[in-house]
Amino acid sequence: MRVSPFLLRPAVPSMLPRLALSALSALAALPGSAAAAPVGQALERPAVTVRAPAQAVLVGAALAGDRIVAVGERGIVALSDDGARHWRQASVPTSVTLTAVRFADAKRGWAIGHGGTVLASDDGGEHWTRQLDGRRAAQIVLEAARAGGDAQAVQDAERLVADGPDKPLLDLLLLGGSRLLVVGAYGLALESDDGGQRWQSWMPRLPNPKGLHLYAARQRGQSVLLAGEQGLVLLSNDGGQSFRRVTTPYKGSFFSAELPGEQEIVLAGLRGTTLRSTDGGASWAPVGVPMPASITATALLPDGGLLAANQAGFVMALRGDRFVPLNAAPLPPLNGLLPRAGAPLLALTVQGALSAAAEPGAAK
Description:
Blueprint: H1 15-19, H2 24-29, H3 40-44, E1 58-64, E2 67-72, E3 77-80, E4 88-89, E5 98-103, E6 109-113, E7 117-121, E8 129-132, H4 134-148, H5 151-163, E9 169-176, E10 179-184, E11 189-192, E12 200-201, E13 214-220, E14 223-228, E15 233-236, E16 244-245, E17 254-258, E18 265-269, E19 274-277, E20 285-286, E21 295-300, E22 306-310, E23 315-319, E24 322-325, E25 334-340, E26 343-349, E27 352-356
Helix pairs in contact: 4-5
């Protein structure tokens, strides 16, 4: 008998907020085992105002033209217009933890976070408006389940609605034009084709019957890759219209993924496990790592190089079939990376934004 994923936990696990704060391995090891997190009130409160936003727990960052926009705990959005030397805080209508940010150009950007939050900015990150929250997201999922006529999917979605606005979104993908995709806990996947005004559920098209968490979303041309807990890897070759499940030799969680080449896939996650395929996922080879620390983020350099960051505070560059550390001494636990052409790499940590080794050639 199939067990509904939404019956395996009381509501949103309190460890999911820690997902954005470098406790990914704890969540993967204990899915659905923790108590509910009170995110409803935080959805309605403006972001906490802090004296030094660049020293807050930061989780992700993006470039809006030359401006750096970094997001993190308590709704904090930090902006820098001088290459990370000085920072100020943006106006944000929510105080939930923000987990990712992307910009289509110097003005238009989106950020996501806990409570099913999607925020939009049309002025380079100075001001943000809420486009989606967990309440509306759950209703969209329920409507899609009812339209599909799957009784189990309807039951799962009804439980999602009953839980309230507590499911975090964990990655954000700009699909081109005004299309965007957000993914997150318990298999949440919603797409908008008009910049976030209207949304539709992608969950019916994903072969994810257990509602496993989706941690990473990447695109290259018509290929869309989703990766998540318990070794879940989903791949589309038609721009997201349909997905197939990709089999890998690892059943632990993948927290990040990249599509470096036409047929190349790199998956990274729990305890540093990294797998690489050069044939579209048909076969896999392990990538060596210098330590068994969970990889929390990856990033592609302009020249095609691949970087990874881990909980032990090391930035690593892929060299052949293994990762090589770029920093001799550990940084604080790492949440994200932002490569910048001609400037030091920006590392997002539990102690804020820090400059790190920028190029693989710097590794000794």
